Request: fold
Amino acid sequence: MVQTTQAPETVERVPQTVRRRRRMSKYRVRRIAYKASMYALLLGLTALIMLPVGWMLTAALKPDLEPVFTPSPEWYPTKFWEWDNFRRVLTEDMPFLRYMVNTMIIVIGNILGVLISCSLVGFAFARLRFRGSKVLFYILIVTMLIPWQALMVPQFLFFVKIGWYGTFLPLIVPSFGGTAFFIFLIRQYMRTIPRDLDDAARVDGLNTWQIFWRIILPLSTPVLTVCAVFTFLASWNNLLGPLIYLDTEEKFTVAIGLANLVTRADTPWNLTMAANLITILPTVILYFFVQKRLIGGIASVGLKG
Amino acid sequence: MAEISLHGVTKVFADGTQAVHALDLSIPDGELMVLVGPSGCGKTTVLRMVAGLEDMTDGEIWIGDRVVNEVPPGDRDVAMVFQNYALYPHMTVYQNIGLSLKIRGMKRREVARRVHDAAKVLYLEELLKKRPRELSGGQRQRVAMGRAIVREPQAFLMDEPLSNLDAKLRVQMRSEILRLQRALTTTTIYVTHDQTEAMTLGDLVAVMKGGMLQQVASPGELYTWPANVFVGGFIGSPAMNLVMATVSDEGGSMFVEFAGHRLRVPDEVVAARPALAEYRGRQLILGIRPEAMEDAALVSDLEPDSHIPALIELREGMGSDVFLHFSLDTPPVVTEDTKALASDIDEKAVDELQEQASQRRTTLIARASPETTARAGGQTEIHINAQKLYFFAPETGLSIVGDRKPVSIAADAREA
Reply:
């Protein structure tokens, strides 16, 4: 009896410690394996995305007479280093520097317009009580369903009539009228800010405008960032709008510039690729800077890219 | 600093619920008035109306020598502390405290001086550069206080400022608030649902129920002379025991009988309550505070008709006291007031009250000395100090007192 009760105890005590150590190392191996596979996967995906960009760079660095579309694609530059192509695109053969400045003017104008108008309207819908606010909000939501193409012709005729054809104004001013989708986003976000803050601010002596400017707006930076970045992308990439309203080359945007580079015959592919790379750059830089805020913003707004 | 007074203040919400009924209340200059009552009794609504955050349906609010009905919150010269503090998350502690001064166009140097002064009083100097999310609950609470005191307003309005803190911190901050209020002598309205807080803080305590004022009195008076069953049951912990009793007269002495037991009511108790004489031979609600009871074995010179036998069901040792739970074979007092008291505990307590009523059984709690040898399951004699009995009219729930008139306010409110 005594033996049977004691024996298992002594037998078990030794392997238990060994097993514990083994289990620890097993966890560690598993963790390392998991991390390694994650990195491998991410590196693979990155390579997949970077391949075309690498090919673009290869193409952009080729001299004019070198074939761009080789039977087996060259994924990264090895033989040719014609950096001069970039200079030619920016200033000489094509005035891409000019185009970029033009586009930037439109982009910044649009971002300002969207932020000012949408944040004000969103604030009103989210925090102020006024008669008919619900009905107005529903009407606003309904306007999201109207395709831009339907408005294109009347808008064009209108802007021609008031003499804005050929200027940046038709591409900037409408954004100051608010965008239904962004107003919706901002309203939803502002609704999540506790009402007690408004009450505290009122007791502190702030009026409605001060509550908007000093309390609600600073707390809404995540959603405002999302709106600003979306606006940047939309107006940076906008081709149709500038194509309709701009008629002189010194007013052209990058989107028009890129479109003009590609012709039916004799497209200068090396220059086109150089221009493309230049066009991507601001977006990449922007993303680099607002990355953290943008992801946080998208997460908090409950929006998926 | 100023007196605050409310005249016939009424609030009816858009959906038709009447939150506050014709409330008359005045808070003397420099005093701390606690508004206490179960949730939904309208106390926070009253506070918000004084702050100007809620419109009144009817009535007048005076702060100092002006009617503030139409004055926006920022111009009422009152500061408010919110339950969840409502600190501005994007601002530092310094900015949070200083915002109201900055908005009023005060010079930067003056703002800095006053913020630092306030921070010093509240031990916040080290934290001025931090943001609210980096602070603990107690620190946030102090920042909220700082935001209030920095303005040197005519009145503080505090809406359950301690309810988000854990128990220990709450006690500490409670004395902190009391210290500050005494030092600054700023008229204060303090809203809470916690009667301990009300009793320890208030110069005056106003008890509310269902949008109506029940009684305004000092903590001591509320405890000894509750205006009605509701106030009696609400103030004090554990709550006052209530049983239906019959009053009888025998040999010149008055007795109360309940559940087959008899207690002699001392002559001086009867003398202090002239109206009690009218209840001879009739039923009334008898209130016995747990602290008026004791293990009879520990009472010297025990008089006849001053103790009742009890089968102890539960013994809770608190260290300083022992709570003895026992039952009487009589239905519990079921009135609108006792239901309101039960629902303040939780929904289950209301069901329990109904269940006890159907079983004709009432649970009582006695607060005995720690020396008691009473055990759960054992039979014990419980002594009741008849000097500390409470009597309420069964029809109205009002205290039976006679010439004393703390009941008048409640009676008026009921008529309205």
Observations:
- The longest helix of chain A spans residues 2-60.
- The radius of gyration of chain A is 29 Å.
- Confidence is low (pLDDT under 50) at residues 1-12 of chain A.
- Residues 99 and 249 of chain A are 9 Å apart (CA to CA).
